[in-house]
Amino acid sequence: MIKLLVAFLASFGLSTILMPLIIHFFKKKSAQQTILGYVKNHKDKNGTTTMGGVVFIISTLILAFIFIEYDTVWFTCLCVSVFYGILGFLDDYIKVKHKQNLGLRAYQKIVGQAGIAIIFSIFIYFSSQAGNMFVPFSSSSFDIKYFIIPIVIIVMVASTNSVNLLDGLDGLAGSVSFIYLIIFTVITSIIGIDLYNQGETGAIVTNIANINILSMLFLGAILGFLIFNTSKASIFMGDVGSLCLGGYIGASACVLGLELILPILGICFVISALSVILQVAVFKMKRKRIFKMAPFHHHLQLSGLSEPKIVTIYSSITLIIGVLSIIFYLL
């Protein structure tokens, strides 16, 4: 527990120190966000410095080898999040270079996301815990064998896109991700303790312990970033940040066999993704929109809710679902 706290504080301190330097660097490089014209509420955000999410990568990479003894599982998990971050950085770079909001084409981004996911799914398949998936709200698991490959691919593409879609308001994606990872770490700790009490001392217990420390490093980096990202934001995380976080959220669930708990704890990620899917599907079929704008947080904004209020709503929903999930795990 002390090691987790120290890891969190170290990451928070480092990211807080790094953020002003990152803001200064990207301002000097004119790395500014170009806002889409149809998002009228965001006109005053045009020109805000972006790509602040690089702090998640830098801070975590620097501290990971200090706090965690090397192991292929957590290291692969970290690499996956970094590779997704690099994909996001490329998307941001194209936007900044051409001073417009369109970076990589949709198919290019999906191909990149799926490519990383496929490689990661093969690693999961050949790992010591291949195919083991925990039943939500218990420490029991079942073997899904080679079906783990398509499941991991789906989880990774879904998680990265969902966090990316949620990154539309100051502090929204960061706040929800922060609360999600806190709850996720508590639940993995409960599962780890239960397994240990049952006499399990193998790889899964070690993996849980290592991933928990890695999660604390991400949590510290996110909190340090949020100091500069809450309304009105001094810097956006950019796709480099949202894809990195989405990659870690998906990868950490997959390496521990907790794929089924992810959409429960990440209900707000699901809401964001589903609102876009429904909006597009209904519009194509009936030429009607069911939301004023998708993702759903933009619908709420156009309905008159302020950004801080929407962030509070989403964060509260994530926290409530998370606390209820912890209670069910303890029962």
**Widest beta sheet: strand line-up:** 1-2
The secondary structure category is mainly alpha
* SS summary, helix count: 12
Strand content: under 5%
- Overall mean pLDDT score? 92
Estimate nothing, just give the exact number of structural domains: 1
Distance between the termini: 22 Å
Regions with little confidence, pLDDT below 50 for 5+ residues: none
**Shape field:** globular
Compute the CA-based radius of gyration: 19 Å
Order of helices and strands: HHHHEEHHHHHHHH
The number of strands is 2
Please describe the biggest sheet, giving its number of strands, its sense, and whether it closes into a barrel. Answer: 2 strands, antiparallel
Helix content: over 70%
In short:
With 331 residues, the chain is mainly α. The protein has helices at residues 2-28, 54-67, 72-98, 106-126, 148-166, 172-197, 203-229, 238-255, 262-265, 267-286, 296-302, 307-330, and strands at residues 132-134, 141-143. The radius of gyration is 19 Å and the shape is globular.
